[in-house]
Amino acid sequence: ASRNQFARPIPAYLSELRYLTHLNLEGVGLTSTIPADLFSSWTHLQSLNLSNNNMNGAIPKSISNLKSLESLRLGYNNFGGSIVSEIGELSSLKDLSLEANFRENSSGKRGFITTIPSVLGKLTNLKILNLASNALSGQLPMQLGNLISLEQMKLSNNFFEKQLPSSLGKLQMLEHMDISFNWLSSTIPSEFGRMASLSSLFLQSNYRDTNGYFSYGINGALPNDIGKMKNLRDLDLSGNYLTGPLPSSLGELTSLETLHLQSNFLQGPIPVEYAECVNLKEILLHENDIEGEIFTMPDEICSLPDLDLAKVDCPVKCDCCLANC
């Protein structure tokens, strides 16, 4: 069932379809909450898509009845409350997408709140975890490292805090990790170097100093183990509190296409080893502590065939950089 403009609550008759396997009601104007008894008879349901509507309220705990469910998409609504722990009982689940339920209006902030329940670590068949753009907070549970089938982790635009769990380094199948725009105060665990399949790592804009709230963001030195991520194409660590010298080990990322390290406290020199990133298209190093005429952008980097954008602070000498003076 899909694409019928209901513009009303979920029709009650759907609960009578006991052998329903797939239900797609994306963007059909549904309102109201999910009825608590809706899931009582859908024991054969494999996919449920209610995204892009105007639904609200909490996820009923009766969702635990959907033992065959492989895909749950509730993004772009006005759902709220906690992510119920009963979702951790859906052992067949491969796609959990609850993104963009955060709204701010006269009634206050909505969206999914509190922490990610640790029982989600039981979902060992999960491939997609998308909880971006909600009001989730607290520390990421170490049990996320048990999601051994995970390929995409999207947790951006929340309020996650404290240290990144080193257990995430066990996610050998993970290709995309986005924990940007949060409130982390964390070093990058050296264990991240074990994520052999990772092609994009986005941890930008975790440094915060607004309205009396402060977080150091991603801080400390960049671990040399990042150079072990041989499939990494996009690395964005901008807008944080990284310190110390630029590590030459980033030059081992021969698949790298974008390197965004701007707006940190990193120091020079710029390693000539970065020229080994032969596919590099963008290298942004401005707004760091790479200052003075003693530093230059190596000509070998400027000569890379696909380089489209390079940027450093003045007066660092760079023949290929976008003017920043």
Question: How would you explain this protein's 3D organization?
Answer:
It is built from one helix and 24 strands. It is 1% helix and 26% strand. The termini are far apart. The chain is elongated, with a radius of gyration of 22 Å. With 325 residues, the protein is mainly beta. Strand 17 and strand 18 form a beta hairpin. A twelve-stranded parallel beta sheet has the order 1-2-4-6-10-12-14-16-19-21-23-24, with no helix packed on it.
Q: Strands of the largest sheet, in order across it?
A: 1-2-4-6-10-12-14-16-19-21-23-24
The percent of residues in helical segments reads: under 10%
Q: Quickly count the helices.
A: 1
Q: Could you spell the SSE succession in H and E letters?
A: EEEEEEEEEEEEEEEEEEEEEEEHE
Largest sheet: 12 strands, parallel
What is the end-to-end distance?
58 Å
Secondary structure class reads mainly beta
In total, the number of strands is: 24
Strand content: 25-35%
Low-confidence stretches: none
Task: Output the radius of gyration.
Answer: 22 Å
On the 0-100 scale, what is the average pLDDT? Answer: 92
| Overall form | elongated
